[in-house]
Each structure stands twice: as structure tokens, then as C-alpha cells.
Design brief:
Helices cover 0% and strands 47% of the residues. With 465 residues, it is mostly beta strands.
């Protein structure tokens, strides 16, 4: 019997506004009102087991009030979701319901079954669910699902031979035992895309950078490696890691700095590990890394939001230099140029400039919606880079566009946009060595794609925030 793993919230808005933990107490009862002991209670990364009288206690961060906790019996036959609201954290009443089953069948663009196909099932209760895989006939029978008005089946971008498959999601009502048939569509990569073949494609492309030779260093978080790719999309080599990479940058000496999943490492150009260390501040994830001379900078999540640390070339002697950065949806990018740290402070709709000690040197950006140069969406810009003249290129995930500014913030123009990347996501950008092409990270399709030049389709009309 498979039991539900309630691991983390899918989306909680601005992830950096951390607050205090508050205790949540409650009790679990059976469908006929009797106390249930030994039930598993999960909320985010917290868990508890109900006592013999059905009572439980669990800690909840105030930022996540409004999300739901998940309760299941040991045998997976009964379960329920219960929303944790502010002001109602005492004696939460959870009455269990019989769990249901769902038979899922996946087929490819040609209608043939997709064997050994990875997918995920999660509920509208607010939690990621469990990772699954189809059998040889493209089927999977899911047991122990909590009845819900909205259960989601999602799958990532993948490939069958030379055919690229589109990622997707299907909403299903699971009030009773059901069967679901899902046909996965083919995806045609745009001309000039990198990481778009069965040989070069990442399982989970989290980030990338360009090395001095103009090659793409693609972070495959799921496969725990760096794929070195040529501009014409050939696999040059693969650098294996013992953790999932989330951020990457090249140093002036040719070495490569990689951070993610609690670690930071320095590799030589051939992929040999020179130095390894834990992320500063006991960080669990990294959003960006950069170098400036012998200094290394890394942005990691912390209880006060996002913090940028300065560490030495041996990846030690960490100092938190920029604290309390607010980033939406797990995004907080920065890069360095000419002795200045440029931060894409997306929740402030600004690009902020700091020196190596963390002193604020200036900022630019606005969210008036009245002009082409303003930043739109809920939280922009997401990423930054530079041209050979030191101008600042910024990308926005709301329109997947790229704009250019001088280092002092004078608007120089709209450079182009990608049309079919969705969500509040990382859209890392880089310029080719000859500066003829701008590339953008496309986590929807696990590729790096060129940004077509063009003009903005419209001027936003959002009110200033």
C-alpha cells in the first residue's frame, strides 16, 4: 500500500517573508467519530503522529497559514485534508474519509502506451504529492488517494527516442474510484535551442551559464550533473556531482562555481572537484552564485528571506553581506560586473546595486505600468546579465521579455521575448560570445532557447505597487 507523502507547498506567494512558527493542535477521528491513534499528520516539512486519543501537535510557520495539512492512517485506507487558518490553530478537527483509487494510463503522440513514464500526483489540499511511474503497458493504479474535488496529475518534459514530449498537467476530480487516460503531446523545439536533443536534454534543467569558450554549462538538478553543450547543441561532456545543482558561474581563473541542495563546490574546467563546502548559513537551496576577483558570492534561502554571502576562494570564511532580500516563487538572481553586485530584487521591482561589502550603491526600476520600461507581473525582474559595454540586460517571466538599461538605469530598449514559457519562474539570460544571440532558460520544456528580437505587444496597465 502506498501512502501519501505530503512534502511541501506548491506555491505560497512571496517565499521570503518568513515569520515565527505557531503551534497547531488538533485531533483525528474516524468517519464514525471515534479517535484515531497512529495517524500521520504532515504539513510542509513538519510531521507528527496522533496519540491514542487522536490528539496531535505540529508547528506551522505563520507565512503558510491558509495551506492544508494532510492526515492519513498507517494503512493508507483513510485520510483527509484540513486547512490551517490564522486564529484557528487550536483543536483542529480532522474527520477521516475512505481513500479512493485512480487508474492512470499514459500514451504518447502516436497513441502508443508510455512505459516507465514518470509523473506526479498531488492534491488541491496544497501539497506536492507522490512521484509515480507507469508499468510496461503505460498504466499505474494509485491507491490511498484522499478524496478531493481537484487532484492533479502532472508530468515533466521528456523524450521518446528523438521525439520530445511536452510537459503538462491534468485536473481530475477524485470523489470516488476512477480511471483517467492522458495523451502526452509532442514538443517541437524552436530553431537554435540548446539542450533539445535526446543526447543533450536535461531531466530537470534548473539553471545554466556560458563558459569563456561560449559553451553552455547546463545544471541538471535531477540527474545531479552539469552538461557541457555546444552552441549547435552537441554534448561536449558531462560532469557528475553528488548533489542537485541549482546555480552556476565561471570564475576568471577558468574554474566553475556550483551551488545547490546544501552544497557549494569549485570545479576546474575539466570538472574535477577542487573544493567543496556546505552552503553558508545552513542554507538548503541556492538561487545564484557569482565571483568578483577572488571573492565568491552565493545567495541562499534563510529564515530572514534571502541572504547573499561573500566567501573566499576556498569557499570558507563566509560573511552575510546583503540580508532580508525578498524574492517571489523561490527566485532571487544576482550577477557581478566591474566591482558591482547587481541584484534582481523582484519583489521591489528594482535592480539594486551593491559593493562587495553589501553597501547599497543605487537602484533603478519602476512598476507604474505606464511605460515600456516598467516592470510588470507580480514580481519582476527575475534575472540579469551584461553586454560587453557593461549595459544591464534584465528578463521578466511575466512576459518572458528582455530589456536593456545603462548601469545607472537609463532605459535603452526592448530586445525581444519568448512566447510560451509560463508561470512565475527563473528565466536566466545570457549573451552569446559574439553578442548576436540572447538565450533564455525555459524550465517549461527543459531547454535553453534563443530570444527572438521584437517589439512589446502592449504596455501594461497595472497600478503602481
Amino acid at each position: 500500500m502506498k501512502t501519501i507523502l505530503a512534502l511541501a507547498a506548491i506555491l505560497v506567494g512571496v517565499t521570503s517573508l518568513y515569520a515565527a512558527d505557531v503551534p497547531v493542535t488538533g485531533f483525528v477521528e474516524s468517519p464514525d467519530g471515534k479517535p484515531v491513534g497512529g495517524a500521520h499528520v504532515n504539513f510542509m516539512d513538519q510531521s507528527a503522529v496522533s496519540s491514542a486519543d487522536g490528539k496531535f501537535k505540529i508547528s506551522v510557520n505563520e507565512d503558510y497559514l491558509g495551506q492544508s495539512l494532510c492526515v492519513t492512517t498507517e494503512d493508507g485506507k483513510f485520510g483527509a485534508y484540513a486547512r490551517v487558518m490564522g486564529g484557528h490553530t487550536d483543536d483542529l478537527h480532522v474527520r477521516l474519509k475512505p481513500c479512493v483509487s485512480m487508474v492512470v494510463h499514459f500514451s504518447g503522440p502516436d497513441g502508443k502506451p508510455l512505459p516507465d513514464f514518470d509523473f506526479e500526483v498531488w492534491s488541491s489540499g496544497g501539497f506536492e504529492g507522490r512521484s509515480e511511474k507507469t508499468d510496461a503497458n503505460g498504466n499505474n493504479t494509485l491507491l490511498g488517494l484522499i478524496a478531493s474535488d481537484a487532484c492533479y496529475v502532472s508530468w515533466g518534459a521528456s523524450s521518446i527516442g528523438t521525439t520530445m514530449l511536452e510537459r503538462g498537467r491534468k485536473r481530475v476530480k477524485v470523489s470516488s474510484d476512477i480511471s483517467v487516460v492522458i495523451k502526452v503531446l509532442a514538443f517541437v523545439a524552436p530553431k537554435g535551442a540548446v539542450g533539445a536533443t535526446s543526447e543533450t536534454r536535461c531531466k530537470s534543467l534548473s539553471n545554466y551559464c556560458l563558459d569563456p569558450a561560449g559553451q553552455f554549462l547546463a545544471c541538471d538538478e535531477q540527474d545531479k550533473c552539469i552538461r557541457v553543450l555546444s552552441a549547435d547543441d552537441k554534448l561536449v561532456k558531462k560532469m557528475k556531482l553528488d548533489f542537485g545543482p541549482q546555480a552556476i558561474a565561471c570564475a576568471d581563473d577558468g574554474s566553475i562555481i556550483i551551488a545547490g541542495s546544501g552544497k557549494i563546490v569549485r570545479l576546474d574546467a575539466d570538472g574535477k572537484v577542487i573544493k567543496t563546502a556546505s552552503l553558508p548559513g545552513n542554507g538548503r537551496s541556492a538561487t545564484a552564485v557569482a565571483t568578483m576577483g577572488k571573492d565568491v558570492f552565493v545567495c541562499a534561502s534563510s529564515k530572514s528571506g534571502y541572504t547573499i554571502y561573500r566567501i573566499n576562494e576556498e569557499l570558507g570564511d563566509s560573511a552575510p553581506i546583503i540580508k532580508g532580500l525578498r524574492g517571489c516563487c523561490g527566485q532571487m538572481d544576482f550577477k557581478t560586473h566591474d566591482g558591482v553586485i547587481y541584484v534582481a530584487a523582484n519583489c521591489d521591482f528594482k535592480v539594486k546595486k551593491f559593493d562587495r561589502t553589501g553597501k547599497l550603491l543605487g537602484e533603478f526600476g519602476k512598476h507604474t505600468g505606464k511605460s515600456e520600461e516598467s516592470f510588470g507581473g507580480c514580481c519582476e525582474p527575475k534575472n540579469v546579465t551584461f553586454d560587453k559595454d557593461g549595459n544591464v540586460l534584465v528578463s521578466e517571466s511575466s512576459d518572458c521579455c528582455v530589456k536593456k538599461f545603462t548601469p545607472d538605469g537609463k532605459y535603452l530598449g526592448y530586445l525581444g521575448a519568448v512566447s510560451d514559457i509560463t508561470g512565475c519562474v527563473r528565466v536566466t539570460i545570457a549573451l552569446s560570445k559574439d553578442e548576436k544571440n540572447i538565450y533564455m532558460l525555459d524550465t517549461d520544456h527543459n531547454i535553453i532557447r534563443p530570444v527572438p528580437p521584437g517589439k512589446p505587444k502592449k504596455i501594461r496597465n497595472e497600478d503602481a505597487m
